[in-house]
Amino acid sequence: MADTRFVNQKMVGTSVVPDEAIPLVEGEGRFLNDIRLPGMYHAAFLRSQHAHARILSIDAGAARQMPGVIQVMTGKEMLGKVDPFESMPNRFSGGQSTQHWLAVEKVRFVGEAVCVVVAEDRAIAEDAIDLIEVEYDPLPAVTDPRLGEKDDAPLVHETCPNNYLIKRDYERGNVDEAFEKAHLVVKRAFSIGRKQALCLEGRGCVAAYRESAFTLTMWMSHQLPYVVRHYLAKHLRLGEHEVRVIAPHTGGGFGQKASIYPEEFVCAHLALGLRRPVKWVEDRLENMVASTHARDQQIELAAAVDDQGRILALDSNVWVDVGAYSTYLWSAGMEPLQTAGLMPGPYQIEALRYVTRGVATNKTPVGPYRAVGRPSASASLELLIDDAARRLDIDPVEMRLRNLIPGEKMPYRNANNLVHDNVNYVPCLKLTAAKAEYDKLRAEQAQASDNGKLRGIGVACFAELTGLGTSTAVGPGTLLQPGRDAVTLRLETTGVLTIAAALPSQGQRIMTAMTQVAADELGIKLSDITGLTNDTAMAPYGFGTFASRTAVFGSGAVIKAARELRRRILALAAHLMEVPETDLTIVDSVVQTVDRAKTMTLREMTDQSYFSAKHIPEDLNPGFEVTSFYDPKFGSFAAGAHTVVVDVDPQTGHVEIVRYVAAEDVGTIINPAVVEGQIIGGIAQGIGEALMEELVYDADGQPKTVTLADYTIPSALEIPTIELHHANTPSAALGGFKGCGEGSIIGAVGAVACAVADALNRNGGDITAFPATPERVLTGLGVLPTDS
Amino acid sequence: MAREKTIQVTVNGRAFEKTVSVRRSLADFIREDLHYTGTHLGCEHGVCGACTVSMNGRSVRSCLTLAVQADGAEITTIEGLRNEDGTRHPIQQAFLEGFALQCGYCTPGFLITAIEFLEENPDPTEAEVREALSGNLCRCSGYQAIVDAVMSMSGKPAPENA
Predict the structure, then answer these.
(1) Chain B contact for A56, CB < 8 A?
(2) Which of A61, A595, A688, A707 is deepest in the core (most CB within 10 A)?
(3) Which one of A15, A31, A708 has the shortest CB-CB distance to B105?
(4) Is the dihedral of CA A17, A19, A20, A25 positive or negative?
(5) Mean pLDDT, rounded, of chain A
(6) What integer pLDDT is reported at residue A22 of this predicted model?
(7) Could you report the per-residue pLDDT of A297-345, keeping only the tens digit for each?
(8) Contact state of A717 with B92 under an 8 Å Cβ cutoff
(9) Which ipTM did the prediction report?
(10) CB contact, 8 Å: A713 with chain B?
């Protein structure tokens, strides 16, 4: 980090080069798979190759005899030792599911863990897996939520009639009346395929017995160390204080590493029994079937619109194929509830009705992935708005302007009961349209193209609720209701500030952000600030990194703790320097009088505090370690509006993104380059989601996409240069910060979907199923038959 | 067929003689036997490029290369990119200052690929950079900062130790 700065230059708002990236760029990151402990064993899992089957017998005799094999364990042998996951009672309708960490009587998806082998090395463990014979009695598989909810469908869980893991009906405002008096009713179907977060590093853990003072130490490639600690202790029947969880460098998270998985409980149990470290590292083929999937939704949406293009009511039906189990710990409710519940997005919707369902199928469970639920909610509504605009002959941007929540109406309570405030919806839309020269784009589009391509323009607006405090639920029905995190600030004997928090980064540079905030609050040089964010033994309590919350919570807690620490510094310095406290300030790690006549470095001060304490009155030397909890109470809405121009090749169905112009409101920015990386990275994932990525299953529940050659994500060739602009307004949270980790993927899916549909509309076509693969595009153009 | 073979390789300037299982991948050999864990495994089927190392001056997927195939070869991994005085290689510095990495898992492969590309094409266009990097996947960055970092090296003399 740069050591020099201009006097009074604020670090918040500066693109500080992050020290925390140095080990990564020098090849000295320490990821999970880089951990090696003396006497460490390796685990491998035998996984179900059936989507749905009864387990008749397991013969592991040959595997147990193999040299180098330490232990083989089946689900039956684990019964009664580690408590299974009983999904929480559902406050809406839908049944309860039980997930054993190794399958006991039935397997419910391809990839479900059936047996574990522990061996001296990974290769032996994998060889031994091949020697285990499992006899199955295959059962009919549920692979389509619309068939699965029928009364005569096979059941994934006997306890879940109609395969509902969750079903919710919601109505607010007078929806029927709105539809009766509507000038126009528009309806649209929308579906989006199954997704994979596809972290470049898969999951993994190392479980160790009696490392240091802890019964169990877990290194996990994970986003939520304290949450893991809580649930590991609970299921393994340990005290939480007996468990330490450390998240080493983590190669991407995106929500996939925010759930807790069977392998982690199994490895912990094995390590405790064997009294040896046990390591498991997921390979890519496992990751594609054993780590949570995402999305997989079908939506039927209707809007009542008046003659001015104002939306009076929304009415939706949502089906989410949530897979075989309610995901630990977020439940099967997160996608269905958030998709339907957050449908209104940034628009003024007075009446809202939905029926949403999470239908169990014999597929990998669906869990959190960047911007849960919102991309499909947003894309389906944005497409519908374009339909309405076309029918009413209103320009799509104008139609959005008439419906967005304007600043003068804020605080505005939407029909989904969320309050919008301090957020720039209209300015974002106006900014993207201005920067993209939207009117010119439309004029160009109207000219006949000479390249044989169909040009499409899509504009999408989104709202993203970030930094949720205790008064706003992360999602109704989830096990976890976070909202309060702590940071500890400690001045070391050398005057260096250490920041400790349980807010691990998977690339978001959380420590750098907190360092910048602390530098401004305390007047300490960046080079005098260090910290850690990943270890429950070192950090105060926190829920971790998810839901675009971390920078908001970490920074808020830093501000609170820094204010108290600053008070203590000035009180002691005033005593030592024999000047009134009110004359003092801190600049570049030096306490000084305003006229700079007297100075004392923080190092000198802490040296006296720690080593000459007997000369200092006790009440002036309470120690320089402060822990503060921060709860922003409510969430802060971030926002954006994206304009996308595409060229669709009617011969091949290929979609090329010609231009991408994004405008975002992410509140007060801490580190612009980091924020830009978050936003552009999210847009890239959204482009993949809208155009390329899809996990495919056949009708028997066999996954067809288990390599990166089948599940394709964008490369540098598919992602255009993103033009990024800001229309920020501070939030009500401390520092004015908002989250920025997720929002942009919402805008990308919506804007790309609208652009493709707009292009197809030029030839009288349309598209309702995404991703918009060449095949679907050609179907939408009528080139391929609909049933292809 | 023999199950093990003794090989000699030079990795990051250091000579090694090791007996390896004939089925051991070069990636596992580098990581597990030589402890150069800076090389990462993203897919182990040759698509993602995270495991890319330089072998006799050409970038190879170390997950698809067997250790025994590297017998006699000279290999450079990310740990071998630093200058002799310990400072970062210019492309490492460009990635750091250009915010061209987030989680950092794919970074080793991008660095090795970019160095080979810039040796062949020291003054590339953006389209050429994107094409050259298209065999390496990054899930975090959206590629823009990576492309910019590589473009920032454009026209600079080829680094000595690459």
Answers:
(1) no
(2) A688
(3) A31
(4) positive
(5) 95
(6) 97
(7) 999 999 999 999 999 999 999 999 999 999 988 889 999 999 999 999 9
(8) no
(9) 0.97
(10) yes
